[in-house]
Amino acid sequence: xxxxxxxxxRLGEExxxxxxxxxxxxxxEGKVKDYQMSSLLMAICINGMTDEEVFALTKIFIDSGDILxxxxxxxxxxxxxxxGGIGDKTTLIIGPIVAACGIPVIKFSGRGLGYTGGTIDxxxxxxxxxxxxxxEEILEQVKxxxxxxxxxxxxxxxMDKVIYALRDVTAxxxxxxxxxxxxxxxxxxxxxxxxxxxxxxxxxxxxxxxxDAEKLSELAIKIGKIYNREVRTMITDMNVPLGYAIGNSxxxxxxxxxxQGKEYDNNLVDLCFQLASExxxxxxxxxxxxxxxxxxEVVNNGKxxxxxLEIVKLQGGDLDKLEFSSxxxxxxxxxxxxxxxxxxxxxxxxxxxxxxxxxxxxxxIDYSVGIRLNKLVGEEVAKGEVxxxxxxxxSIKSPDIESIFEIK
Length: 408
Ligand code: URA
Fold this sequence. Notes:
Number of strands: 12
CATH architecture of the largest domain: 3-Layer(aba) Sandwich
Bound molecules: uracil
CATH class of the largest domain: Alpha Beta
CATH topology of the largest domain: Pyrimidine Nucleoside Phosphorylase, Chain A, domain 2
Radius of gyration: 21 Å
Helix content: 40-55%
């Protein structure tokens, strides 16, 4: 039976709800083995799934754990999910902004995957910051300050946890069908009414073909309709890193700079303003233009930064104890010209090699290391000028600067 199901997908045929249910729940119960699940996942990656199969799989994922419901307490909960990027600290910025605009945000975030960072790792760079809030604590905090960012509770889509871990090590992450059911099951199970999906596209992202990003967007919207959730999507660039910092403490510091209005007019700030105004527009049912002016207002009047300080305090973090490695290494311009590209993927790999991300699930992250860019795409550079500072622990082999920074 199990082998027949794998064979059916290998031949590109459609699996029924029953077949998917038997296979996936069998895996959760230990009856289907890792090698059998790996084989089915690869067949799905190669042959794809019909929409009906994706809807069935999403339901199986949702039903594998708790379904959270904060309906009685909150009117509308808006959530956003990013498919993962390099230097993507947007949640740390837009969570406080949207909450400061008066919309409750309960965000269940994840850890870094592959070369992309995760919000929970960044928050844990703040010593003492708790990412394991109970449902009672979540409710109490959201009522108090409109904002909670915490890790996924153990029983929120447990199926996704085991399947994702296997996908990560079997080169089966980048299937649109699997991504759609993974993301949407978590958003629906966590009780979000309105969902904004930031689909990253480019060299530093899971997806590098526009038609795949568009297909994911369509699927997410269709799944949302089934569960009566409003889903909006944005397809955003991930060829170059977001902002200046890559690495956990450095990214927290950069998020604080943006919230204090110290950074403006770069790709990170633009994206945060776009995402936050989309969320505020959904949450308040107002136009995106009106939402954007509210977003700018709470950044300019300091309310968004105050919200950030409140969440850090309530979740036990101590910003004075953020650690930055004091050992620095500089990457310098190999010629004079204009910086025309910064390779996000190469910097993602470099940050992992410095210890800012994990090579395997067991690896411990060093929060104090990372990369701080001194120049962004479009800027002029002189020969020998510092393009980036690496905050390192051990001495490292110099990376190939020419393959990371394109100067013309
Ligand atoms: N993010 C997720 O949560 N799941 C995926 O499958 C890909 C990105």
